[in-house]
Amino acid sequence: MMIMLMMIIFVLILANVIMFISSLLAKKTITDREKNSPFECGFDPKGSARLPFSLRFFLIAIIFLIFDVEVTLLLPLVGVMNLTFVNTWVFTSTFFFLILLLGLYYEWHQGALEWSL
């Protein structure tokens, strides 16, 4: 028990010494605002959090996520093809593709895929 306590104390002291030496050797200055601030997708983290955000970009991102999830649902169909009858696989994949294409047509018809204003 005493050895474990001594090892924990040694590790804590070593970690603090390494952090102290690192902070002494670092070449950060207070005037380097860009280097000291985290990169937040191009937004200034010290500014207002209520900046206008493009709803078109948000809509395209949501559509991408929906179709990305549907593609991940399509991948297991290849493995299912060997385990089930061919008619079941063909019906399931055709029905799934039909739903996917109808959703794509609906989004296209509503104008959600057009980037221009």
UniProtKB/TrEMBL annotation:
The reaction(s) this protein catalyses: a ubiquinone + NADH + 5 H(+)(in) = a ubiquinol + NAD(+) + 4 H(+)(out)
Cellular localisation: Membrane; Mitochondrion membrane
Name of the gene: nad3
PANTHER family in UniProt: NADH-UBIQUINONE OXIDOREDUCTASE CHAIN 3
A GO CC term attached to the entry: NADH dehydrogenase complex
Membrane topology per record: Multi-pass membrane protein
Record protein name field: NADH-ubiquinone oxidoreductase chain 3
TM annotation in the entry: 57-78, 85-106
Provenance organism: Palaemon sinensis
Keywords attached to this entry: Electron transport, Membrane, Mitochondrion, NAD, Respiratory chain, Translocase, Transmembrane, Transmembrane helix, Transport, Ubiquinone
Similarity comment text for this entry: Belongs to the complex I subunit 3 family.
